[in-house]
Amino acid sequence: MSPRSLFWIPVAVRFALVFATGLAGYYVWDLKSGLILALLVLTAMVITQLRYMYQLSLWLDNPEEVRLSDGWGSWTEIFAKLYRLRREDQKNRNELAEWLSRFRQAMSQLPDGVVIMDDVLFLEWCNPVAEKQLGLSLATDTGMRVTNLIRSPDFIDYIILGRYEEPLTLTLGERKLIVRLIPFENRRQILVSHDVTEFDRLERMRRDFIANASHELRTPLTVINGFLEIAMSEPDLDPSIRQQHLKLMAEQGKRMQSRVEDMLALTRLESIEYPVREELLDMHAMLEQIKAEAQALSGGRHAIKLEFNGPDVKGSPDELRSAISNLVSNAVRYTPEGGSITLHWRDAEAGPRFTVEDNGLGILPEHIGRLTERFYRVDKSRSRETQGTGLGLAIVKHVLMRHNASLQVESQPGKGSQFTIQFPGSARVLKLA
Ligand SMILES: Nc1ncnc2c1ncn2[C@@H]1O[C@H](COP(=O)(O)OP(=O)(O)OP(=O)(O)O)[C@@H](O)[C@H]1O
Ligand SMILES: [Mg+2]
């Protein structure tokens, strides 16, 4: 039976009931009594309907608080249907809320910033990465125009021009971002931001590296080529002058070779396929030898001391010798004649520690964080005198990273510097008494 006929049956039953009561009254008493009886039953029915309608109206106003009775006749069916609809609606709402919360959670985990705006760029929602990258705050900025929040002329031009197929490179403070606006649905837009600061820094470092490396090699090559041209164009050159040219050429050749070796050493150290060779190091013998080399480099112009009071360590002998002697040779080269240099080897709670202390030129604080960058030199003209390339501390940094050790630099211009290598406790090798 169709729902429509199911609805009409109780209506027909009710009319039959009114008619039957009227008829019964007529038979028992008379027509008037029959009509009154039928009217009474009809009134009772109308009152019942009105009561249920009133209940329904109350329930519709406040479905959470008000409870519907089971009803009577077709009302039972109507109330049951309404309850079912409401339950389904509640279920759909719960599912939707759950999806929304999952969606937000997923968006919050994204490494990129996501901002959802309406068609006129009023902020509706953004994830924590977007808050950090674009300086937004979901708590206080919701409902505000994004162009008033991201105050960058480039961003405003991007919005005005509306060429959203192209991403925009946006610089906000220290950060470099790639942002893109994607219109979706009819009345919403998404702004996605991707942080490329680190990538940009590495790219710049790579470009600088190539430029610096070419520059470092070009100078000695120009000198060698110059002498070769003289040798070719002047076959009768005085042998003593020729000898002098050959000596200068050999010097430049050696210089180039040492640069290339440094660069190769750095590349080798950076390669992950090349593991650390762990050996037991006789620190005392190594530091004595480094001290002797420093004295040779100084040529008696500095007072060089070693204070040895620490354990042996495990590590790669070649790499650690190169790191420590880089620090010590820097101390000699950047300390004027008459200065003193002390090498300390001691054990600390955190692990064994090497420090080279000088009372030389010192370094301004703004340079300290950049010393380990490849080719970084504080004073290029001074470094040229000392023939420095700026690769020494980059090599030190990589060696230490491979040994889980760290470099600490303390320095005061005009007073001197302290370069410390802090080894991890696990590098310590205790001698058996
Ligand atoms: N003990 C020190 N005192 C003062 N300045 C120093 C000291 N050690 C390093 N520096 C500064 O740090 C810069 C970087 O040092 P690094 O050893 O990397 O390069 P370099 O000595 O110039 O060249 P390389 O070591 O490649 O021959 C140096 O150019 C120098 O200006
Ligand atoms: Mg150096």
Topology at a glance:
Layout: H1 3-28, H2 31-61, H3 74-109, E1 113-118, E2 123-126, H4 128-134, H5 138-141, H6 146-149, H7 153-161, E3 168-172, E4 175-184, E5 188-195, H8 197-233, H9 239-270, E6 279-281, H10 283-298, E7 303-309, E8 312-315, H11 317-333, E9 340-348, E10 351-358, H12 365-368, H13 380-385, H14 392-402, E11 406-412, E12 416-422, E13 428-429
Parallel strand pairs: 7-9
Antiparallel strand pairs: 1-2, 1-5, 3-4, 4-5, 6-8, 8-13, 9-10, 10-12, 11-12
The chain binds adenosine-5'-triphosphate and magnesium ion.
How would you summarize this macromolecular structure in one to three sentences?
The protein has about 425 residues and is of the alpha+beta class. The chain has helices at about 5-30, 30-60, 75-110, 130-135, 140, 145-150, 155-160, 195-235, 240-270, 285-300, 315-335, 365-370, 380-385, 390-400; strands at about 115-120, 125, 170, 175-185, 190-195, 280, 305-310, 310-315, 340-350, 350-360, 405-410, 415-420, 430. The chain folds into four domains: about 5-100, no CATH class; about 110-195, Beta-Lactamase (2-Layer Sandwich), CATH 3.30.450.20; about 205-270, Signal transduction histidine kinase, dimerisation/phosphotransfer (DHp) domain (Helix Hairpins), CATH 1.10.287; about 280-430, Histidine kinase-like ATPase, C-terminal domain (Heat Shock Protein 90, 2-Layer Sandwich), CATH 3.30.565.10.
